[in-house]
Amino acid sequence: MLLALARAATRRPLTVMLLWGLFLLLGFGLGTGVFARLSDNVAEVPGTESESAARYLDRADPAGDSITGVVAGTAVRDPELRAEVERTVADLRDIAGVAAVPDPYATRGLTAEDGRALLVSVTLAGGLEDAAEERTLDAAVERIKEIDAPHVHVSGGPLLGEQLGERAQQDVKNAELISLPVVLALLLVVFGGLRSALLPLLVAVSGIAGAFLALFAFSEVTDISVYAIQVTTMLGLGLAVDYALLMLVRFREERRHTEDVVEAVHRTVAAAGRTVLFSGLTVAVSLTGPLVFPSVFLRSMGLAVAAVVVVDMLAALTLLPALLARFGGRIAPAKARPEGAEGRLFGRIAAFAARRRIAVLAVVVPALLVLALPVSGMRIAVGDARQLPTDTEARQLYDIVGDHFPPGTGVSPISVVVEPGTDAATADRIRALSPGAVTRELPGGAAVIEVRPPGEADGAAATELVERVRELRGDEPVEVTGVAARLVDFRAMLADRAPWAVVTVLGGILLLLFAFTGSVLLPLRTIVTTLLSLGAALGVVVWVFQDGHLAGLLGAEGLGALSLTAPPLIVAIAFGLAMDYELFILARMREARQHTGDEREAVVTGLRRSGRVGTCAALLLAVVFGAFMTGGFSPILQIGLGLTLAVLIDATIVRMLLVPATMALLGRRAWWAPAPLRRAHERIGLHEEETPRPRVPEKV
What we know:
The chain is an alpha+beta fold. It is built from 21 helices and twelve strands. It has helices at residues 2-11, 13-29, 49-60, 79-94, 130-145, 158-191, 194-219, 226-255, 261-286, 296-331, 344-355, 357-372, 393-404, 424-431, 460-473, 483-517, 521-546, 566-596, 599-628, 634-666, 675-684, and strands at 38-39, 66-72, 98-100, 117-124, 151-155, 224-225, 380-381, 414-418, 438-441, 447-451, 478-481, 562-563.
């Protein structure tokens, strides 16, 4: 199949390049429309109590969204400023689509006690169409911004999602401007030529276009999180460079043995192409874990990222062979370098780890476990504006409110929906939980009790209050919603579905690795070592962003919890990337073992041949992830740091030390499989086509 694909790409290279050019235009044209469709709401889980109660409230009390403006930095009771604010309030009330604007001077809690700030709250009418709502929002924001004061900021409601989308677009552009030149420079060092260095970037640009197009397609049927842009773009860019690097290194090797460029391309696709295919499938399977969860956010992210991986894989298997067929003769001259000249350092490291396997395991495994210890205390939260960079509108509003108003101002309440037939004593007990509880009657005899939790909207006190209300209600028709309730339901969803996600992913990985290696023990060993590196990376993320250690160096702060988006995505993506590197090295080890029949030598030779490309790929991925960490958005910082550490730990400590040590410890048993499974693999397993190589023995 792969050879047929390679022959088609090399037979009509210009046609293939033209088709990919059209795909790029579509991705960067139509696909970028996703920036206007991003959502900041990631905690909703269909079918949960919080979602059911929220829908009930929407039907019974269809109020519109609201936005908030803050005026600060001067004496807000100054007669001249007060007159201007009152004129602004009157003008806001006259805007079509505005339902209510309370007077900040006459409404309790809207003017700060220190007299240095006030809030302007604008509630929109319910049922507005998108175009009408946008016109109303634009007019309201423009009018509030006309107030002459040192600090005037507006955010909240639909504005927050819009502001986050603009920030995401800006961060993606900045990250690409930073990462692409650095990646090009590193590729120039690796390949020593501009043509070779540009080819991975062409594949990477295809991956970015695929990211935009996949997200745009999914936005037609579901909400797309603001986090999706950075995550899918960074992964699409990184994996594309990885796959192209693997193919180019193999192409150069093949050119040592053949003068025919097209034949070298065919051999490259037949060998390294199978590794790319399995790698893409393995990463995609790793990302099926989020599909098990009912969360719209996790499902859409899993589908979008998996789609991007497939695009990268197809670009490496079609676009790159076409480019090589056209320009490969100038990129890699025949017999450019003798085979034994590369990878000697990696061979020596592998030989050392194989000889000192017990000592290596005794040092490396405890060290990784120590790094993973903070995971035991990991907490997740929906988060607030502190996750945003300090120069964003929403963060500036949040900081000013925090400086001038009492704690809890602006915090979303816990909404308790009391349906008809509820015992009055139950409602009284719920109200007694908070002295400031407010009860609003709803049509049809229902009511909603709004309880403002102490502290943060998703803090420990708020979630405990949600759980307390649910304990008190018993069997009464009472439901709880709000930010804290959604967080409680999200955590419960993760705990309930996580085992199924683990079984799904590990089952798929075990099958793919068995099909690739024909071994039963190698997939198990791979999963154990991968979990060690993944745990270590996640532990450092908890230590930095939850506990606050060294967070300031990254432009962040300790928030007491990780964003609920970060851990699932770090685990899913990092696990897939680890499988990516594992396949790189296993492919070379198996090939060397088939040539030599010596397990120990196969380990050393495999790492010698794959170490350079794996390390370069890891370094390039780290550059890409690091560039996306320049935006300052805490969830992306968390994901970026987690993936960077996971990649670097996996490509260095695990692949250079743990893999050769464990392989040497297992010896011939590493490739063992029961006779029935071995026969099944011989019939249906996938085998790389091999190019004969002169044997270069390695001493261990």
